[in-house]
């Protein structure tokens, strides 16, 4: 699996940019990363136990902490800091970004929530 060669947080635009050693480069909004956190708080402890994250349009990343040589822990300004983002997971999230984002928006709509535009 490809590994990152560069990770750059654009705090003003709330975008995390990651370049991988195979030449791929992905831009992830902080909101996207927060609502798709691999943490048990978001994903649940088993299939079907995930918790829909709402109201995260303006979330930002405060700190990026390395976890060994295989992942990072992202510390968000809403206090969430328990997700370990493994390189392979981040890569897959980048490849499937549009599909994952579309699914999230459909889940919000199905739950009766409207996403606000970030300020």
What would the keywords be for this entry?
NE0471 N-terminal domain-like, single chain, three-stranded antiparallel beta sheet, alpha+beta, globular, 119 residues, 28% helix
Could you explain the architecture of this structure?
- The structure is a single chain.
- The chain is of the alpha+beta class and 119 residues long.
- It has a single domain (4-110), classed as NE0471 N-terminal domain-like.
- It is 28% helix and 29% strand.
- The protein has four helices and six strands.
- The strands form two sheets. It has a three-stranded antiparallel beta sheet. It has a three-stranded antiparallel beta sheet with strand order 4-5-6.
- The radius of gyration is 14 Å and the shape is globular.
- The mean pLDDT is 95.
Helix content: 25-40%
The sequence of SSEs as H and E is EEEHHEEEHH
Poorly predicted runs of 5 or more residues: none
Strand content: 25-35%
C-alpha Rg (nearest Å): 14 Å
Number of helices: 4
**Integer tally of domains:** 1
Structural class: alpha+beta
CATH C-level category? Alpha Beta
Strands of the largest sheet, in order across it? Answer: 1-2-3
Mean pLDDT: 95
Oligomer: single chain
Termini separation comes to 36 Å
**Topology, number of strands:** 6
Task: Note the overall shape.
Answer: globular
Task: Give me the CATH architecture, please.
Answer: 2-Layer Sandwich
CATH topology: NE0471 N-terminal domain-like
Largest sheet properties: 3 strands, antiparallel
């Amino acid at each position: 699996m490809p590994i990152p060669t560069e990770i750059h947080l654009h705090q003003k635009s709330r975008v995390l940019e990651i370049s991988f050693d195979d030449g791929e480069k992905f831009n992830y909004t902080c909101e996207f990363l927060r609502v798709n956190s691999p943490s048990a708080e978001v994903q649940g402890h088993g299939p079907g136990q995930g918790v829909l994250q709402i109201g995260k349009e303006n979330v930002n990343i405060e700190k990026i902490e390395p976890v060994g040589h295989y992942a990072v822990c992202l510390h968000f300004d809403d206090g969430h800091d328990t997700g370990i983002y493994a390189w392979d997971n981040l890569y897959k999230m980048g490849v499937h970004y549009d599909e994952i984002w579309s699914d999230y928006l459909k889940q919000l709509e199905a739950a009766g929530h409207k996403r606000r535009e970030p300020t």
